[in-house]
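Protocol step 4 of 6: structure prediction from sequence.
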Amino acid sequence: MADIQKIVEELSSLTVLEAADLAKALEEAWGVSAAAAVAVAAPAAGGDAGAAVEEKTEFDVVLTGDGGKKIQVIKEVRAITGLGLAEAKALVEGAPKAVKEGVNKAEAEEIKKKIEEAGGTVELK
């Protein structure tokens, strides 16, 4: 636990630019998006909190139905998520369920397009 406290103290001393560089480095190293960290850091750094709230940067892609084309939608969900057949089938049959959470707008639109082309219905939240 003491090691975690040391890390927190060191990170707290970073400037906004250093924190942004750290976020980019972690994103590249781990292959994940740091959009949430940047969105949280901006208001704390004295930015305009109202502007950060207005511009939504993360979306949840929620499957709302299979449109009667369950097999095609299951195949697309598997391709998008990397889930196994049983997990993808359970997700589709359990709709409404999130297919992906916390993705950027472009990725969310692309996922929505793919699922709709397969016959499913999707909401972006």
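Step 5 (inspection) to follow. The mean pLDDT is 79.
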